[in-house]
Amino acid sequence: MTLAATSATSAPSAANLVQSVDWAAIAPPTIAAVVGLLVLVADLFVPKGRKQLLGWGAIAGLVAAILTLLPLRKGDRNTFCLTTDADACSYTADHFTLVIQFLVLGGALLTALLSLHDTKERLPAGEFWFLLLSSAAGAALLPASRDLATLVVALEVASLPAFALVGLKRGDRMSGEAALKFFLSSVTATAVMLLGVSFVYATTGTLHLTEIAQNLDDVPARLENLAKAGVALTLVGFAFKTAAVPFHFWVPDTYVGAPLPIAAYLSVVGKAVGFTGLILVTVIAFPTYADVWGPALAVLAALTMTVGNVAALRQVPTRAWSAVRLLAWSSVAQAGYLLVPIAAAAYSGDDQIGATVAYALMYAVVNLGAFAVAALVARAHPLNRISDYRGLYATRPAAALVMGFFLLCLAGLPPGIIGLFAKVTVFSAAVDAGLGWLAVVMGVNVVIALYYYLQWTAVLFRAPGGAPAKQPVPALAPAPVGAPITVAIGVTAAAGVVLSGYPELVLRFATDTLF
Question: Residue 404: its pLDDT value, please?
Fold first, then answer.
């Protein structure tokens, strides 16, 4: 009787632990992961001469993952929730999640288009596509994560394949060194972040972000310093992914050593992962300690944009890989601008987060476009120096015009209206939050950046080899341009032009992503 009664009592309890999975909500990262596994297995059976099929399969998988965002557009789905609290879920497909997933999966898709040429000639196709899709799956999982455990897992799933992608150029010493530096610095940052997560868990007794926010409001006095230390250390891992100073030192060498499409991927998708994690932990989990992370992020933003712009300013045009290094340091400076609205949210609420999302969307489009043109130029000039772009208008007028447009967007000058609009939005966020000193620092850095962006733009239209502009310049026979890279350049250019014509669409779209 006693055993039967015990069994009858435990049965409902066990049933309560079983919950249905919303497969539609988790479809975007799931499809990317499953297609990655299929590509890895297919690599064993596809003949060497037909390895390009793996690339097209990966592209089809990313397109399918993006299309699965359409049924979720209402932003009202969640799954893996606590049985005791339906509001505490580990996976949430809200508007913020969907926009970031669109950004990272779209960035991975453009990276795949840029990589088809390299996987045909220099990179192992099966491993490359598996690693890219795995990293994209982790990047798509992270914005939906609403507990610290899932956040850390998603961050590592996005990062670990990226280490291998950086070092995938076999026999290239620079590629191996870049991967090792990237790996060691990232592992150190992750270890520090895990220590912070353990401190937060010790003081709150939970890993769910919404419950952490509630419990941090009532932390015992003896644990308050531990909680503050946990908050600060948790931010370190995400600050590393954003390449914020002083966690930026891996960026230039990693971008130079990595295959160029992977450098583009890290500059956009890698940054989106870091900023998404920062937004989730600061705005949702740690609003109680805004006085801790707000000033810290404001200082990091000022240092990051200043160090990035000054280093970009010092690049010598004739130095090997100077074009890639300038884009690398430019991405560090852009990270500083992206940090501004997050810091401002500590002073004036999460309404400022829309500015970061808007800037990230603009940056993703134009930076991927700039790397696409750089990949095109690298076919004829493997050292990819800024001086190699001299006279690009004479041989490839369309590529030169598009590259000039992308550089002007990054500088925030017409006709790149979207870049100007994004910078004004971020500037306004700092002013509205009362961070006047940060707005001044940003204004100075925008002026500094104008010099090297305009200098590179001018190089595109100079006569090749120093020949006088009035003399006819014999056009060199350019290397043939493949359809995939043409599509990548065309899509980014078209998106930049449309957004420059209707910049308010970006802000309205981004504002709707608030939690």
Answer: 93
pLDDT confidence tier of residue 470, bands split at 50, 70 and 90: very low
Q: What are the CA-CA distances from residue 511 to residues 99, 118, 284, 285, 497 (Å)?
A: 11, 38, 16, 20, 21
How far does CA 509 lie from the centroid of its chain? Answer: 18
pLDDT at residue number 468: 43
pLDDT band at 511; cut points 50, 70, 90: low
- State residue 509's pLDDT score: 62
Which H or E run contains 77? Answer: strand 77-81
Q: How confident is the model at residue 19 (pLDDT cuts 50, 70, 90)?
A: low
Instruction: From residue 494, give the alpha-carbon distance in Å to each of 197, 359, 376, 487, 488.
Output: 42, 18, 18, 10, 10
CB 259 within 8 A of CB 132: no
* Rounded Cα gap, residues 106 and 398, in angstroms: 23
The pLDDT score that the predictor gives to residue 94 is: 87
What pLDDT is recorded for position 449?
92
The residues, ordered by sequence, that sit 6+ positions from 363 with a Cβ below 8 Å of its Cβ are 268, 271, 334, 338, 410, 422
Residue 40: what residue type?
L
Half-sphere exposure of residue 415, counting CA atoms within 13 Å on the CB side?
Answer: 11
pLDDT at residue 105, as a whole number: 95
The predicted model scores a pTM of 0.89
- In this structure, which amino acid lies at residue 300? L
**In angstroms, rounded to a whole number, what is the distance separating the alpha carbons of residues 433 and 420?**
20
- Structure-token pair, residue 486: 């043409």
CB 386 within 8 A of CB 326: yes
Q: Which residues on neighbouring strands pair with residue 89, listed in sequence order?
A: 81
Token pair in block for residue 12: 């409902």
d(C-alpha 102, C-alpha 268), whole Å: 12
Task: Identify the band that residue 372 occupies on the pLDDT scale cut at 50, 70 and 90.
Answer: very high
Beta-carbon contacts of 97 under 8 Å, excluding residues fewer than 6 positions away, are: 75, 143, 144
For 223-277, what is each residue's pLDDT tens digit? 888 988 898 898 887 888 888 888 888 888 899 988 899 999 999 998 888 899 9
Tell me how far CA of residue 508 lies from CA of 294, 491, 495, in angstroms: 25, 21, 16
Helices within 349-435 (DSSP H only): 353-378, 392-395, 397-411, 417-432
How far apart are the C-alpha atoms of 133 and 42, rounded to whole Å?
Answer: 14
Give rounded-to-5 percent helix, strand, coil for the chain. Answer: 75, 5, 20
